[in-house]
Specification:
By secondary structure, this protein is an alpha/beta fold. Helices cover about 40% and strands about 15% of the residues.
């Protein structure tokens, strides 16, 4: 039996921009929340302009990816009228999300304490690089900057290589997911105990939590992690990436049973009994020689063939794929991960849902990414403004009334 989405009836007022905050509110949107995106009149979210192609002018693909189905209202928060409208929207919000540097919205009178005074049950979530306390609180941040300060770059790459960032904004995204999880928890707490609250999410905190497998051993035993390249977490020489005939394949033969199964699948049972490799310690000591032996066989077939062969004998493995390879893979196609969106010049376009599927909530299309200020008029009429009043505010520059998509 199908049910409504879990956040149906929840209104989110979203002051966030670029990635961490918008990904948070995207996740809330995929769970059924109404998201009202407050943007700066004139330019809007800077991520709108991350693409120069004419068909994506003002709605670049990265912007579309995390803003589909949201309602855009464009305001000049430096104007008295624009600020008043923002406060009116906050009074009706269940949740507020912002990712400005600490203190920016407080100075405008849009901070948590001002909001709470008129909306006691509000859940107000601030996402920033370093949080609202500590000596780094006022430092500006981007994903790659936090990758540097958090230690992520120090662990990425081959041993001996220079610090390297992960190839996508992993900390922006994870901080957004952390914020969404915290908000859902706060909504549940409010439902049970009747209190709203303030949530402080820092990208740095989220990054350390993401690296718990490395950070906690240091906190517990003083173990300082080092770069391991493509080696698996348990450091087995047969838990690594190997060259195949066409590309590379990642193998996870961690245990003795898996190692022996790997050798049999390679038709190299002699490696099981070779005194250099028979035990884990020997394999570590002689890992270069073992790697040469394994690659002498893996180079004979394409990676995807080996992937099938190894997995059939319970040796975890996967061909190293590109984004376009995996996005169109039959397995991904059969999973309810992709969500339809409304993009006139590309009817096949999709974005990604929350990353999990609730069995009793069927996936739905998210609709379109909004044009800047597309919903300004409708939202303000909802607040009680007349069309004449809106035209006057637009002439004054306090609001921007965008056009609906054609």
């Amino acid at each position: 039996m199908s049910m409504p989405p879990p956040l149906q009836g929840i209104t989110v007022v979203d002051f966030s921009h670029v990635m961490a905050g918008p990904f948070c509110t995207h996740t809330l949107k995929t769970l059924g929340a109404r998201v009202i995106k407050i943007e700066r009149a004139g330019e809007g979210d800077v991520m709108r302009h991350y693409d120069t192609r004419e068909e994506y002018k003002g709605t670049a693909p990265p912007f579309i990816a995390v803003n589909c189905g949201k309602e855009s209202i464009a305001l000049d928060l430096k104007s008295e009228a624009g600020l008043r409208i923002a406060k009116q929207l906050l009074e009706k919000a269940d949740v507020v999300v912002e990712n400005f540097r600490p203190g920016v919205l407080d100075r405008l009178g849009l901070g948590y304490h001002e909001n709470k005074a008129t909306n006691p049950g509000v859940i107000y979530c601030s996402v920033s690089g370093f949080g609202k306390s500590g000596p780094m609180r006022d430092n500006p941040a981007y994903d790659h900057v936090v990758q540097a300060v958090s230690g992520v770059m120090s662990l990425t790459g081959e041993p001996g290589s220079k610090p390297t960032k992960v190839g996508f904004p992993v900390l922006d995204t994870f901080a957004g997911y952390t914020a969404a999880s915290a908000i859902v928890a706060a909504i549940l707490q409010r439902e049970r105990f009747g209190e709203g609250q303030y949530i402080d999410v820092a990208m740095l905190d989220a990054s350390l939590n993401l690296m718990i497998a490395m950070v906690a051993p240091y906190l517990i035993a003083g173990d300082i992690p080092k770069k391991v390249g493509n080696r698996g977490f348990n450091m087995s020489p047969t838990s690594d990436t190997f060259q195949a005939a066409d590309s590379e394949i990642s193998i996870g033969a961690n245990t003795q049973v898996q190692y022996e199964a790997l050798c049999k699948a390679l038709d190299r049972e002699d490696l099981i009994h070779d005194p250099r490799f028979a035990e884990r310690e020997g394999r570590i000591k002689n890992e270069i020689a073992l790697r040469d032996e394994i690659e002498s066989r893996t180079r004979e077939k394409p990676a995807e063939e080996w992937e099938i062969i190894f997995n059939k004998v319970s040796v975890p493995s996967a061909a190293v794929r590109t984004i376009n390879d995996i996005a169109n893979h039959p397995h991904v196609e059969q999973r309810p991960l992709k969500v339809s969106i409304d993009l006139p010049h590309n009817p096949l376009a999709k974005t990604l849902g929350p990353g999990f599927q609730l069995a009793n909530v069927p996936p739905e299309s998210l609709g379109a990414a909004p044009q800047l200020g597309e919903h300004t008029r409708a939202l303000l009429i909802e607040l009680g403004y007349t069309n004449d009043a809106l035209d006057t505010l637009a002439e004054q520059g306090a609001i921007q009334i965008g056009q609906s998509r054609i």
